[in-house]
Amino acid sequence: MSWIDLLYAAIVAVLVLASVLPELRNTSWVIRMADIPRLQIMALIVGVALLGLVLPNPPYLLWLIMAGTLVLHGAKILPFTPLGRTEITLAPEAPDQIKVLVSNVLLENEDHGALADLITREDPDIVFLMEIDATWAGAMEPVLKKYPTRVSLPKDNYYGLSFATRLDTVKAEAVYLADDDTPSLLARMTSPCGREFCFVGLHPRPPLPGTDTDERDAQIIYSARFAREENGPVVSAGISTLPLGGAPRSGSNTSVNTLIRGAGAVCLPASMRAAACCAVRLISFT
């Protein structure tokens, strides 16, 4: 075997490890970070496979292994594409319908007016904003002051939050579900027709260099168990950067990004400039 063949095999081994290791129940950031760039890893695998065509000895076994890793990545990505199974049913028009606006404002984004205009135009019953610092909190004050119940916890570490609702609220508070300085929002409210439900707002930390995911996983698991144990509807919303294949397995079969239990929902995407993420959701309790 030539040195070129050995180099090619080593590159394939690295790509295979980056594909397989995230399947382990391990919270090390080195392993969990490989969950994020799945499309990029798939592109690298395809590129490396094509390079094998120029080798003197076609690497059939390595091609077979790479094909298997592509299938693995495809299975992880498919649920988040239009080809995936619909997890949330469309909500019929109903008097008990509420509108929820959730937005990751992107801390560096200075286009405060775009979000303010969106909130004014959509006039949601619940607003949950992430990555709120003091500047963003001040900019949103004029449009959120009309809401009787508000919780604001600005931070300059990308994990500040702001919550506002016009619904009758039993309790709304920012809490720390883990010890990593990333707050979550817990609220108990009443729908227009008098049905009590819970809202959980999450923005857990993604895997970062030097930061393992134990605390992040604990927040998601808590949310899943909370939803499972509640008797009434639970709405959980937030951002988890990207769908992570190695997400916690011990909590529930909840979706990390949006959980609506005991309710139907239709998601209406709303674009925001400067890479901010936003979604408006209509929820009807049935």
Write a compact overview of the structure shown.
The protein is an alpha+beta fold and 286 residues long. Helices cover 32% and strands 24% of the residues.
Helix content: 25-40%
Class from helix and strand fractions: alpha+beta
Strand order within the widest beta sheet? 3-4-2-1-11-10
Shape: elongated
Description:
- This protein is α+β, with helices and mostly antiparallel strands.
- Helix content is 32%, strand content 24%.
- The protein contains seven helices and eleven strands.
- It has helices at residues 3-20, 29-32, 38-51, 60-77, 112-122, 134-144, 214-229; strands spanning 97-104, 126-130, 149-153, 161-165, 168-175, 184-190, 196-202, 234-238, 258-261, 263-269, 277-285.
- The chain has a six-stranded mixed β-sheet with strand order 3-4-2-1-11-10, covered by helices on one side. The chain has a five-stranded mixed β-sheet with strand order 5-6-7-8-9, with helices on one face.
- Strand 6 (184-190) and strand 7 (196-202) form a beta hairpin.
- The radius of gyration is 22 Å and the shape is elongated.
Entry keywords:
286 residues, alpha+beta, six-stranded mixed sheet, five-stranded mixed sheet
Q: Secondary-structure map with pairings?
A:
Layout (H helix, E strand, L loop, with lengths): L2 H18 L8 H4 L5 H14 L8 H18 L19 E8 L7 H11 L3 E5 L3 H11 L4 E5 L7 E5 L2 E8 L8 E7 L5 E7 L11 H16 L4 E5 L19 E4 L1 E7 L7 E9 L1
Parallel strand pairs: 1-2, 7-8
Antiparallel strand pairs: 1-11, 2-4, 3-4, 5-6, 6-7, 8-9, 10-11
Helix pairs in contact: 1-3, 1-4, 3-4, 5-6
